[in-house]
């Protein structure tokens, strides 16, 4: 009897140990699970050319309402060149232009011997887009649905995918119609989790009037009313406060002057080169054998124009390592325009300049359950939008040039550590593995002690026998 009685003690220790490990595991499990990315719905809105400071130029009550209810990031550094297509593709890939391959609005691929042109509406060649995979492709590969209203690139088949719902580009489709389609997609029986909305203004009027023109006031007010309309429609559809809305843009705008023109014809024979992308970051393709001649004549031609051979382009611009970047890049200083000569058409506003310039920076607001309220943040990079979106959608971000850690402080709930999906599996695996190992050790120890006590008992009984006989 004695050995059996004693045997219960190690068994109890073993069971206690198991229960403790199980309790710790259960206690830690929720916090491990809370590290899982969110799976919220997101609407990404771009008002083309909405400079970061437009909200201070005229009364913009709807932008301010969104700011009070969400987060306002004051300076967003977008990517060079600060044009529409490169920056819209950055927002949905997290990559610099040299890495996603949409290096300009106007491009020439010397290997494919093919061109891409926003001006000629010739943007549908998949091969220009497929150096990267935009977020809607990943979203759909992971089983979700996307809806896109005119966002650049969403009417192009990329890696075999269109967005689940999309609208072929047509700038005459009204803002209201675009919003209506998105709301239908968000509220349908098989709803989208991710929507993209693009609107051409205030970019177009910014080019025509110039950003410092007082007539831009009504244009900015109109965008503010459009934002108000979007918010009221989301409220009607019971989506406001439920989905996360990011309101941003691709770039800002700089004021030009007919006094600040750099005329290429004054310095170099037009027969020697082709201009692929236009001012203010001019992509120059010299004729065969004419690279040095064109470069030498332009290099010190004008004090407000910096000319680089492709390999000299500063690393900080992340604008070198792509075959669609042409052999010579001529970049005008802020507010200057590069033209062939004065007979070229003139506009009062332009963008495309160095992305370090605040005038090139866009607005950024984020409103919804995932975001802090009435909060501001000083700076972020446009490349960070992509990992933020992936976190909100609960999908795996592809390798990118952004950083989720750099923007996680705009989220309402603290996100303690950034783990990939693999890491969650690892955490659970380690917990379960440790639990099983401890159970095994406990059973082994129990068994060992039990055997030892049995042996001692036998010896004790044998040793005691003669005394009993006495
Ligand atoms: P940017 O001057 O770089 O800001 O280019 C803006 C212009 O691009 C807008 O005025 C739009 O009309 C035009 N745009 C935007 N998306 C498309 C598209 N999918 N196809 C053709 N043009 C577009
Ligand atoms: Zn634009
Ligand atoms: Zn523009």
TrEMBL record:
Its cofactor is Zn(2+). GO terms for molecular function: hydrolase activity; metal ion binding. It is found in: Membrane. One of its GO terms (cellular component) is membrane. The keyword RNA-binding does not apply. It comes from the Eukaryota. It holds the Pfam family Phosphodiest. The keyword 4Fe-4S does not apply. Keywords: Glycoprotein, Hydrolase, Membrane, Metal-binding, Signal, Transmembrane, Transmembrane helix, Zinc. The chain crosses the membrane at residues 424-445. Residues 1-34 form the signal peptide. It is a single-pass membrane protein. InterPro entries: Alkaline_phosphatase_core_sf, Phosphodiest/P_Trfase. Belongs to the nucleotide pyrophosphatase/phosphodiesterase family. This is Ectonucleotide pyrophosphatase/phosphodiesterase family member 5. It comes from Falco tinnunculus.
């Amino acid at each position: 009897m004695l050995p059996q009685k004693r045997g219960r003690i190690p068994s109890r220790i073993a069971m206690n140990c198991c229960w403790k490990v199980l309790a710790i595991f259960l206690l830690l499990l929720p916090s491990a699970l809370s590290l899982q990315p969110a799976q919220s719905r997101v609407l990404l809105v771009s008002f083309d050319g909405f400079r970061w400071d437009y909200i201070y130029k005229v009364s913009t009550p709807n932008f301010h309402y969104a700011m009070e209810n969400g987060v306002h990031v004051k300076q967003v550094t977008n990517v060079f060149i600060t044009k529409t297509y490169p920056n819209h593709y950055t927002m949905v890939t997290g990559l610099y232009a040299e890495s996603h391959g949409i290096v300009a609005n106007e491009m020439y691929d010397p290997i494919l011997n093919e061109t891409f042109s926003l001006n000629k509406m010739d943007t549908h060649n998949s091969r220009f887009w497929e150096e990267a995979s935009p977020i809607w492709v990943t979203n759909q590969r992971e089983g979700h649905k996307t809806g896109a209203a005119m966002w650049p690139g969403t009417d192009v088949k990329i890696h075999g995918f269109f967005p689940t719902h999309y609208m072929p580009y047509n700038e005459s489709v009204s803002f209201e119609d675009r919003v209506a389609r998105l709301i239908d997609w968000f509220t349908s029986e098989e709803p989208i989790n991710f929507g993209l909305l693009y609107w051409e203004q205030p970019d177009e009027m910014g080019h025509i009037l110039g950003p410092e023109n007082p007539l831009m006031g009504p244009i900015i007010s109109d965008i503010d009313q459009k934002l108000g309309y979007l918010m009221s429609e989301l409220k009607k559809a019971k989506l406001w406060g439920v989905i996360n809305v990011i309101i941003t843009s691709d770039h800002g705008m700089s004021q030009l002057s007919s006094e600040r023109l750099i005329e290429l014809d004054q310095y170099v024979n037009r027969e020697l080169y082709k201009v692929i992308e236009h001012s203010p970051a001019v992509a120059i393709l010299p004729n065969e054998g004419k690279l040095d001649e064109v470069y030498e004549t332009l290099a010190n031609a004008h004090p407000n124009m910096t000319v680089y051979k492709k390999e000299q382009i500063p690393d900080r611009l992340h604008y070198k390592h792509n075959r669609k970047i042409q052999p010579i890049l001529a970049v005008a200083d802020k507010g200057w325009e590069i033209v062939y000569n004065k007979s070229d058409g003139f506009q009062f506003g332009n963008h495309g300049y160095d992305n370090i310039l605040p005038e090139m920076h866009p607005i950024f607001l984020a409103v919804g359950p995932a975001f802090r309220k009435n909060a501001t943040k000083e700076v972020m990079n446009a490349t960070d939008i992509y990992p933020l979106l992936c976190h909100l959608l609960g999908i795996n971000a592809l390798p990118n040039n952004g950083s989720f850690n750099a923007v996680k402080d705009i989220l309402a709930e603290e996100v303690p550590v950034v783990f990939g999906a693999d890491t969650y599996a690892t955490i659970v695996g380690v917990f379960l593995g440790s639990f099983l190992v401890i159970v095994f050790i406990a059973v082994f120890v129990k068994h060992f002690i039990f055997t030892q006590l049995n042996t001692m008992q036998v010896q004790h009984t044998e040793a005691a026998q003669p005394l009993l006989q006495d």
